[in-house]
Amino acid sequence: MPLLPQEHHTSTGTGYYLAPLYLTMVVMGMVGLVFTPSLNLPCAEEEEEEEEEEERSKREGQLERDLLEAAHLKQDADADHRVDDKEASGMGGLAMGLLAALGTGVMSATQYGAVTAGKEAEVDSLACSLTNSSNPCPEYLQEQFNPTGSWMVSFGLGAAMSTVVYVILLLLHQKLQGRPMPSFEFETMKGPGSMAGLCWCVANFFNTVAVQKGGNAIIMAQTTSVQLVTSGLWGIFYYKEMKGWHAVVWGCFAIWTLASMLLLGLEKAT
Hints:
With 270 residues, this protein is an all-alpha fold. The chain has three domains: 105 residues, no CATH class; 70 residues; 37 residues. 76% of the residues lie in helices and 3% in strands. The protein has eight helices and two strands; from the N terminus they run E-E-H-H-H-H-H-H-H-H. Strands 1-2 form a two-stranded antiparallel sheet. Strand 1 and strand 2 form a beta hairpin. The N terminus is likely disordered.
């Protein structure tokens, strides 16, 4: 199965593909969804007053914390150094977050790309088909790439073992630093944490099945689009993170992204 099976269009005897165009439109929409909250857009007067009041409260709270720190350390210079350290830490956190997001995308694409390439290699070596019943592949090969069978079992075992390894490494690091192990916060995790984990597992299952059926390039773009739109809707209606024109512009980008996603899906070659 190729990474991007495309519908072939013809016009005046010339063949062309629209999938790259729709994929570019999806990416443009996702960029708009991400950067809309940071745009300098006009807000309603009430929203401006709320934002000013919130900013004023933050400044007052920060001022009180700075005064307490200055009184504790008895030196204004030390307080200035702490502010600089906080700013540097914030920039470092932003850089680490961007690197982590980039790594997530690269590793996810590499994973599904390797699975697709491996399946093609096995099918070609045996000259069989995983979809054509007249020339089926051996049962062992079908099971190896069965997203509802051994694939999920292998993934679950691998995820569990990886988590144990990470916990052990964290424990060793804390011991070497002479610090206690962070709390696992079981009281919080047993409710919202379990729900989040269950939703993620179900989503990962359907995403894996979709990639196996529809291909890496199309399905991953659609999955990312839906995740961004869903997260944005939670941010707007539940957390009230955007209001006024920001919400309107974000909604336009969401419609653009979803429409591009649907057009990209229709380009899947049959």
